[in-house]
């Protein structure tokens, strides 16, 4: 694959007090690649995402972002790295991830001003961003409460793109959207990938990731149990959990997959006590 | 912004008059507030609009002269509480566990401390005077500000938009300035306006007990205390100082409500729709 | 014989003074399953509530008829409704935890419903509750646990057990799997299908996700803003959608979902 990965996670462990939330995760993302991370409640997917951007401190393991080792960074080091704007993060809930007291313009300016860009240049960049996510300039003076759900999500995406990141982490980016906006958001992520931005797309729902991701990693009980090209993982899953996940995902064509097979897989996962 | 609400205008109007009294009161006082006369406990007359007290001093002059001390005292109380309470309140969320633990325990201790004992102890230690008295009161009400500021900060500190700012490389200072402060301000403004009101009452009652302002010097509370001593001779006399104190406290509370209405999210929406309506009507 | 029949049901919002559901009709035979698909605000939940006689204040059935086992439900008294709910028609909703008392053991809560609905004695009610737990595939030890000790999927099973306590003939599942993980959602859907096969329970499955409904139902209604935009057998909706909104719902799965990469022969 490409020479240097944008993101390389090696044997990452995270403990919350006694809980071993992440048990040795490995993940690499090449420039311009989209990797889907699938996991359900308690799988450790949010922990992985938050550890990558430094919101959670790993207890062991290495994280390399664009060639720089970050797992051991302290406050100042993280701030310097973040100001370069290499990695950005899109949160699940677009309403709560925008300050209710800041206008759209102020929210979009924020990462640019933190970078130390002059105000005028930043304001110009904000207009470019709006155009990129197809939002009207009239919205600049609005507060988040005065936007629709889809508009809000586009504002948070625009904010994440402000610093031209090489890697964007999308944490359940479409879960809070309705069908029409979900399709539009997914279309946009494809465009983003085509434009060369690497994406880590985190979701509980294999369905929303499968159409966008080049590769998929499946997290189960804090471990990546399966990883590979999307087509391979979806069509020839090796791990029982992946098989159950695919057999459980509501799809149109396979709407009537054998119930008995799912029951077998559940039994298998129960008796094996998870990954084996 | 507060002026866009009727209640805000009334509150600011009253407080403006009070502030004016604080500045001009001693100058426009018709008589020397300290000079007694033979005409004691007189009813209102052309010479003495509010009558005289038990030493024959002009009550109006004493109230006017005392307004500066009273107002400054109340403001001082509020400011001390603000600095001693709000700053640690916000920082307790960011400066780590030891600082958090110590400030929380201090706040609890202050709440548990009997007010008068503390006041007497401080005056014994630092001497009896206005600044000492205000200092005591300010410290005593600061836990309120600490709690309010801390609660407001906590509610925003873990929100995704603050995390988004941190992920953009924002420092603690930036986060507090840009996101936290705005959210902390409304509840603090409410607490501040309330405390200023309480400050008046407390300063007045301390003076009443003889802590703070020394007797001949007039304050609103002092005048009230003196009047109360001669209630049987002049049952109407406490009305004037009471009315002043009440009007000020009321205006403070009104202002607090107005600030809350205007700065809250709902308030902003309210004002926005009003502006929109007004703009539509103008067309 | 039809079990449940809605004919041109209109629901009126007394506050906004407008109709929010404009004429919904479907028939449900014993052991059959009807699916209702739509976004929030499409009127799907109000329709369910009308069938259960629990429309929110100010909302009324302004036209059409709802009949259950051939009996018109208009003008039932509160007592008659109470007798009907649970024993003929029952429901489960999205947030199972909010329907249970956090300070009582779930087993006792099921047993209480059994006693009220069937008049059984304490001992018999407990036996019946254990039976119900078994029929929703929960181990007997769940009887003595409190709601906070159970996962979302287990709580939803407990509520299904409660709902079927008095052997209703119709079960309404209103977004009953929305808040759950995909694998847990499949467990619950499998359980519903299983109950339908074993006991002939008829289902009304309500969801925003066409695929969820397609998995369980024979007939599908697609609602949008209180209007039925498309209605028909599942195969017709999936393979010959006529309305653009239905096409959008399908496109979401076909172009961006698992369907895009799934090669059918490899699965199952």
Automatic annotation (TrEMBL), chain A:
Keywords: ATP-binding, Nucleotide-binding, Transport. The keyword Transmembrane helix does not apply. SMART domains: AAA (SM00382). One of its GO terms (molecular function) is ATP hydrolysis activity. CDD domains: ABC_NikE_OppD_transporters (cd03257). Residues 7-246 form the ABC transporter domain. It holds the Pfam family oligo_HPY. Belongs to the ABC transporter superfamily. This is Oligopeptide/dipeptide transporter, C-terminal region.
TrEMBL record, chain B:
GO terms for cellular component: plasma membrane. The keyword Transport applies. CDD domains: TM_PBP2 (cd06261). The chain crosses the membrane at residues 12-29, 71-94, 106-126, 161-176, 188-211. Residues 67-256 form the ABC transmembrane type-1 domain. Belongs to the binding-protein-dependent transport system permease family. This is Peptide/nickel transport system permease protein. It comes from Asanoa ishikariensis.
UniProtKB/TrEMBL annotation, chain C:
Keywords: ATP-binding, Cell inner membrane, Cell membrane, Membrane, Nucleotide-binding, Translocase, Transport. It is found in: Cell membrane. GO terms for molecular function: ATP binding; ATP hydrolysis activity. Residues 4-250 form the ABC transporter domain. PROSITE patterns: ABC_TRANSPORTER_1 (PS00211), ABC_TRANSPORTER_2 (PS50893). It holds the Pfam family ABC_tran. One of its GO terms (cellular component) is plasma membrane. It is a peripheral membrane protein. It comes from the Bacteria. CDD domains: ABC_NikE_OppD_transporters. Belongs to the ABC transporter superfamily. This is ABC-type dipeptide/oligopeptide/nickel transport system, ATPase component.
């Amino acid at each position: 694959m490409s020479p240097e990965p944008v993101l390389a996670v090696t044997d990452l462990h995270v403990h919350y007090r006694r809980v071993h939330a992440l048990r040795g995760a490995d993940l690499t993302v090449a420039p311009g690649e989209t990797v889907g991370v699938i996991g359900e409640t308690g799988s450790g997917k949010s922990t992985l995402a938050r550890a990558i951007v430094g919101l959670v401190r790993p207890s062991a393991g290495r994280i390399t972002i664009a060639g720089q080792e970050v797992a051991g960074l302290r406050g100042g080091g993280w701030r310097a790295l973040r100001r370069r704007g290499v990695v950005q993060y899109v949160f699940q809930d677009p309403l709560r991830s925008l300050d209710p007291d800041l206008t759209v313009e102020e929210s979009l300016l924020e990462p640019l001003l933190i970078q130390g860009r002059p105000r005028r240049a930043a304001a110009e960049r904000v207009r470019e961003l709006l155009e990129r996510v197809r939002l009207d300039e009239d919205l600049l003076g609005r507060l988040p409460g005065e936007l629709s759900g889809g508009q809000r999500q586009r504002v948070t995406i625009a904010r994440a793109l402000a610093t031209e990141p090489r890697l964007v982490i999308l944490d359940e980016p479409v879960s809070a959207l309705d069908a029409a906006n979900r399709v539009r958001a997914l279309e946009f992520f494809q465009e983003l990938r085509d434009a060369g931005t690497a994406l880590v797309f985190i979701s509980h729902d294999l369905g929303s990731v499968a159409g966008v991701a080049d590769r998929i990693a499946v997290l189960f009980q804090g471990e990546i149990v399966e990883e590979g090209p999307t087509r391979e993982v979806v069509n020839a899953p090796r791990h029982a959990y992946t098989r159950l996940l695919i057999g459980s995902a509501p799809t149109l064509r396979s709407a009537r997959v054998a119930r008995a097979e799912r029951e077998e897989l559940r039994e298998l996962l129960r008796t094996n006590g998870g990954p084996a | 912004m507060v002026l866009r609400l009727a209640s805000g205008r009334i509150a600011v109007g009253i407080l403006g008059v009070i502030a004016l009294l604080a500045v001009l009161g001693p100058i426009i006082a018709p008589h020397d507030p300290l000079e007694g006369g033979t005409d004691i406990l007189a009813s209102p007359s052309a010479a003495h609009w509010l009558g005289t007290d038990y030493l024959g001093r002009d009550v109006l002059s004493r109230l006017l002269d005392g307004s500066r001390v009273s107002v400054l005292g109340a403001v001082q109380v509020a400011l001390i509480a603000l600095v001693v309470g709000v700053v640690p309140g916000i920082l307790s969320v960011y400066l780590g566990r030891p600082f958090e633990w110590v400030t929380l325990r201090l706040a609890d201790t202050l709440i548990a401390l009997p007010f008068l004992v503390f006041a007497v102890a401080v005056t014994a230690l630092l001497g009896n005077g206005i600044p000492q008295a205000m200092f005591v009161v300010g410290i005593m009400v600061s836990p309120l500000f600490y709690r309010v500021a801390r609660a407001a900060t906590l509610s925003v500190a873990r929100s995704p938009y603050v995390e988004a700012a941190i992920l953009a490389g924002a420092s603690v200072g930036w986060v507090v300035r840009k996101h936290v402060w705005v959210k902390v301000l409304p509840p603090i403004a409410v607490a501040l306006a309330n405390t200023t009101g309480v400050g008046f009452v407390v300063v007045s009652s301390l003076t009443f007990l003889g802590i703070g302002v020394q007797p001949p010097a007039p304050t609103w509370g002092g005048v009230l205390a003196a009047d109360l001593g001669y209630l049987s001779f002049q049952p109407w006399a406490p009305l004037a100082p009471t009315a002043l104190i009440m009007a000020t406290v009321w205006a403070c509370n009104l202002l607090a409500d107005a600030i809350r209405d205007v700065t809250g999210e709902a308030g902003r929406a309210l004002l926005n729709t009003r502006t929109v309506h007004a703009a539509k009507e103008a067309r | 014989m039809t079990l449940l029949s809605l004919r041109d049901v209109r629901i009126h919002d007394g506050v906004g003074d407008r109709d929010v559901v404009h004429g919904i009709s479907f028939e449900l035979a014993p052991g059959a399953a009807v699916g209702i698909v739509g976004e929030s605000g499409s009127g799907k939940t109000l329709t369910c509530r009308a069938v259960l006689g629990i429309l929110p204040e100010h909302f009324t059935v302004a036209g059409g008829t709802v009949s259950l086992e051939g009996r018109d439900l208009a003008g039932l008294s509160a007592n008659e409704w109470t007798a009907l709910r649970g024993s003929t028609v029952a429901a489960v909703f999205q947030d199972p935890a909010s329907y249970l008392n956090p300070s009582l053991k779930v087993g006792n809560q099921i047993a209480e419903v059994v006693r009220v609905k069937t008049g059984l004695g304490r001992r018999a009610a407990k036996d019946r509750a254990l039976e119900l737990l078994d029929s929703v595939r929960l181990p007997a030890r769940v009887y003595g646990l409190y709601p906070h000790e159970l996962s979302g999927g287990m709580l939803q099973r407990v509520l299904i057990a409660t709902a079927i306590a008095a052997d209703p003939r119709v079960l309404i599942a209103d977004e009953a799997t929305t808040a759950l993980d995909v694998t847990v959602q499949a467990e619950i859907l499998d359980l519903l299908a299983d109950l339908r096969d074993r006991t002939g329970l008829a289902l009304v499955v309500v969801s925003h996700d066409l695929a969820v409904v397609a998995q369980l139902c024979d007939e599908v209604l697609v609602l949008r803003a209180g209007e039925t935009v498309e209605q028909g057998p599942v195969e017709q909706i999936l393979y010959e959608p006529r309305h653009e909104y239905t096409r959008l719902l399908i496109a979401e799965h076909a172009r961006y979902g698992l369907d895009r990469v799934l090669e059918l022969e490899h699965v199952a």
